[in-house]
Amino acid sequence: MRTEFYGKRCPVCRNIFREGDNVVVCPVCGTPHHRECYAKENKCGVEEYHASGFVWKGYLPGEEPEITVEKENNAFGSAETENTNAAQQDGNIPSYADFLKRYEDRSPGEDGVSMKELTVFASRSLFHYVQAFSAIRGFGGGKKRKTFFNICSGLLAPMHQFYRKMDLLGIIMIVVMLLPSLLIALNENYFMNNMSFYYFFNFLSIAEQILLCLFGDYLYYRHAVRKIRSIREKYKDNANSDEYYAALELAGRPSLPRAIIGTLVFVLCSSLILVIPGVQ
Known about the structure:
With 280 residues, this protein is an all-alpha fold. The protein folds into 2 domains: 50 residues; 205 residues, no CATH class. The chain has 14 helices and 2 strands. A two-stranded antiparallel ribbon has the order 1-2. A hairpin with a 6-residue loop joins β1 and β2. α5 packs antiparallel against α6 and α9 runs parallel beside α13. The chain is elongated and about 85 Å long. It starts with 22 loop residues before the first strand and ends with a helix.
């Protein structure tokens, strides 16, 4: 199959062309079809547009000529989108056709979840997460990995975790980040005489942020897989319906109120720790 057909849509079955598909083109307008679809209809799937002079140029009648990727309109997502630079350095940024091919891939992976389900669940910063999920799953025969750089996951913790509805991880991060301050507040005299502990705790804080930047997308991937499986159980008799994908999008849609509440809880807990010596 010619590369210009990758990620394009058959006008008969409306499915995306994939590698290895047997494709034929209409001799009049050049529109590609699955061979079996063309044989079934015994005519071009867009024959009604021939009279108007339609010629296939990479898209079907009524479709946009270019694929636009939704961008996040806030600080969380815009930084995530910029993080695709790391993938670009590895040569992994796909063309728009390849992007669509991955986005529309409904074949289940080893975890039983398709790229279509994962990317619909990710909802925002889509181009970043298509790259992250592809790297994690070893898309196209590449080496699987658990690291994919996401600066928001580390530098904006725990806000980012709550924003992505990973509430348990957000709570864990609050505990982990506040524990050194709590220990110092409870034993201030001891730590004042042992400054090396301050440096040690600062080092741990930086290490936590780096680890989250590297492994945050993998943690989000595992979270997404669990949620998708749970939602699919509710739609097991209608798992390819628009309602199912709408439920995935709603469940994975980022929550700014969660991020705000998580931040307020973090700030409140930090403030309470600061007054502990005064209480004593």
